[in-house]
């Protein structure tokens, strides 16, 4: 099964969440559009310890750290989502989006349109900060308007029970995981969260 990891903002914690998901499912990883270096693929690969996960190359690899449409324009390119094909694999596939849901790919398409094109279940990553309730609920409304299947939500940051509670109440999303602030992020950190994810994963 394919899962599309998206966030409520650029720094929501999608890459660490993707690494945890890959380690838990021993799934393949794919970042279809990478804008800026270092590559998130390299980061996830450094955090994975299982031998089954395969890292598929990006379809678009852009140099400038900006929204894909701006980064592509700087290189004289136009991105076309119809050209982006899901890698063939017999394994689960974790697909990491670029930035938040409404980050533009070109003048017509947004990052979340990839999830619909690929027919993926969505995993939403929400970092907890002042204003994140509004941003998370707006993102959830967008996912629901687009009739996308949402597997669940991953919270990231200092615990805020009131924020989490109201978000879960209004979205009806399943809480899959809460990633706490970590001084060091490495393979041990990723493995630490696999057990919690396993408990919450089953339908």
From TrEMBL:
Reactions accelerated catalytically: (7R,8S)-7,8-diammoniononanoate + CO2 + ATP = (4R,5S)-dethiobiotin + ADP + phosphate + 3 H(+)
Gene Ontology biological process terms, A to Z: biotin biosynthetic process
Main subcellular location of this protein, as a coarse class: cytoplasm
Sequence positions that bind Mg(2+): 15, 40, 96
Keywords attached to this entry: ATP-binding, Biotin biosynthesis, Cytoplasm, Ligase, Magnesium, Metal-binding, Nucleotide-binding
One Gene Ontology term, aspect cellular component: cytosol
Residues that bind ATP: 11-16, 40, 96-99, 182
Subcellular location: Cytoplasm
Cofactor requirements of the protein: Mg(2+)
Keyword Glycoprotein applies: no
E.C. numbers: 6.3.3.3
Record: active site: 31
InterPro entries tied to this protein: DTB_synth_BioD, P-loop_NTPase
Pfam families per UniProt: AAA_26 (PF13500)
Pathway per the UniProt entry: Cofactor biosynthesis; biotin biosynthesis; biotin from 7,8-diaminononanoate: step 1/2
Record-stated family: Belongs to the dethiobiotin synthetase family.
Subunit record text: Homodimer.
Summary of the function given for this chain in its UniProt record: Catalyzes a mechanistically unusual reaction, the ATP-dependent insertion of CO2 between the N7 and N8 nitrogen atoms of 7,8-diaminopelargonic acid (DAPA, also called 7,8-diammoniononanoate) to form a ureido ring.
Entry protein name: ATP-dependent dethiobiotin synthetase BioD
Protein source organism: Chryseotalea sanaruensis
UniProt lineage: Bacteria, Pseudomonadati, Bacteroidota, Cytophagia, Cytophagales
